[in-house]
């Protein structure tokens, strides 16, 4: 079997159709109908990706993701009938990598699952020892090991935060639109929510900036997007 997906969905009809499509694409799928069963399955055998509904009988997919994110960096995709910005933001703040709203095309879900698995695998393959370091007097980035330090201390970043930071830091002073950043880090889907970029930018600023409201590293270029500036450089 292929990569393992843990699907958490209490609607049997939705779960059945997703299982069919995911398995047709060569993925191994385990199904749980609530957070307790899902967390038990996760602890027994860590999957390659978590695909979870938000509203579940014994809690929420957000709570489940929060517990799992504290133990693993596997990709997490939320599915929900709700489209409210606050729920989307909350899911991404908890370390979610993508958010799909119902109703959806099962083939689109499979494509987005595959995209997250590819990106996660590519990130794992690049974690090789290296002496390359990008730094200024406050932050240093090890692009090959993916380690980030602030004032000499390792910085805890979620997978997508780390990918976004490394992508921009490798291209200092280059301005990227929200659409370009989403396409590079998350992959382009016609029904994707671009707000995920702004959420991750805001979370990154809280972690790397001395003054998040007056950012020095990730700078907003009004009307265009964002650019990364090293502290020692002129931006």
TrEMBL record:
PROSITE patterns documented for this protein: OMPR_PHOB, RESPONSE_REGULATORY
UniProt xrefs under Gene3D superfamilies: 3.40.50.2300, 6.10.250.690, Winged helix-like DNA-binding domain superfamily/Winged helix DNA-binding domain (1.10.10.10)
DNA-binding region: 130-230
Domain named Response regulatory: residues: 4-117
Entry keyword set: DNA-binding, Phosphoprotein, Transcription, Transcription regulation, Two-component regulatory system
Molecular functions (GO terms): phosphorelay response regulator activity; transcription cis-regulatory region binding
Keyword Cell membrane: no
Location, primary (coarse class): cytoplasm
Positions where 4-aspartylphosphate occurs in the chain: 53
Record localization: Cytoplasm
Keyword Mitochondrion on entry: no
GO CC field: cytosol; protein-DNA complex
Residue ranges constituting the OmpR/PhoB-type domain according to the UniProt record: 130-230
GO biological process, one term: regulation of DNA-templated transcription
Pfam families: Response_reg, Trans_reg_C
Listed name of the protein: DNA-binding response regulator
Organism: Paenibacillus rigui
